Amino acid sequence: MEELTNQLYIKAKELIKEVEDCGGMTKAIETGLPKRRIEECATKKQARIDSGQEIIVGVNKYVTKEEASYEVLKIDNTKVRNEQIDRLNKIKSERDNSRVSTLLKRLEEAAKTGKENLLAVAVECAKARATVGEISSALENIWGRYEAKPEIVSGAYSSTWKQADLEKLDTDRVEKKVKEFAAKNGRNPRILVAKMGQDGHDRGAKVISSGFADLGFDVDVGPLFQTPKEVVREAVDNDVHVIGVSSQAAGHRTLVPALIKELENAGLKGQDRPVIVVGGVIPREDYQELYEAGVDLIFGPGTKVTDAAEGCVDLLMKRAKH
């Protein structure tokens, strides 16, 4: 126990020094250092699980042959959205809109000059029944909105796999198939990893992006909170073979059909459109609905990154033959 505690202490000091060398945590965050370290750690852990170096009972060891069924609460997203719109409209019809407008302008001025306590003014806006969106927009008018620059951790997934004591590595098999696809098609398979709606859980999407890149895919990572139309525009601009939708917040039953509709509106149907892959927390009972909507592949919890990549390249190779 003392040895483990000491190892933790030594490693923590190394990380703290790395942050201090950047000029402090604020500077480190601006450079994206903490985010990269977290994503690198998550990618390596996934590689250890996929390769069997790290055992998780029920996931990669002693897995039950029959998958247990669970009853999942289904929410009507359209109904919830309409109810929220009605609530907002009711609030706006009952409040003093003139006072709200005055306070929002005051909030903008406070953000611009720094002469007032910003939090205090924001609280006054909220008490007057200004919405969170209106308060955020007032601040955005002065400061703009932060735009994250998606980055992919390179080498973490494949290098961790190579540490496994295995005669044959799954990564080698998948890399070979990717190279075969590239040789026949003149370029690597290209995937856009997308996060749509209000789903802000991007750790899984980043692990997939890093793993696929290490296996030879060209990977584009979309920003958080995209609309289906924005995803389609990015997919068309980048001429991707695959659109991979990461769903961790139960939005797939609404957003994925909307994405496929946008693809059709862009003239992309059947074999002409990118392969649609959905991964993440997808209840088994939703699979058929997604397949009927036009989804090609679904990868649920516990799927190896190598299996997902192989499934994608196999389908692309099959498509190319037709």
Structure write-up:
This protein has about 325 residues and is α/β, with parallel strands linked by helices. The chain has two domains: about 80-145, no CATH class; about 155-320, Rossmann fold (3-Layer(aba) Sandwich). About 60% of the residues lie in helices and about 5% in strands. The protein has 14 helices and five strands. It has helices spanning about 1-20, 25-30, 35-50, 75-95, 95-115, 120-125, 130-145, 155-160, 170-185, 205-215, 230-240, 250-265, 285-295, 305-320, and strands at about 190-195, 220, 240-245, 275-280, 295-300. The chain has a five-stranded parallel β-sheet with strand order 2-1-3-4-5, with helices on both faces. It starts with a helix and ends with a helix.
Mean pLDDT: 94
CATH superfamily of the largest domain: Cobalamin-binding domain
Biggest sheet strand line-up = 2-1-3-4-5
Helix content: 55-70%
Number of domains: 2
Which CATH first-tier class of the largest domain would you pick? Alpha Beta
Number of helices: 14
Q: Biggest sheet, in brief?
A: 5 strands, parallel
Q: Stretches where pLDDT falls below 50 for ≥5 residues?
A: none
What's the count of strands?
5
| C-alpha Rg (nearest Å) | 24 Å
Helices and strands, in order, run as HHHHHHHHHEHEHEHEHEH
Could you tell me the CATH topology label of the largest domain. Answer: Rossmann fold
C-alpha termini separation:
60 Å
Category by helix and strand content: alpha/beta
Backbone shape: globular
CATH architecture of the largest domain: 3-Layer(aba) Sandwich
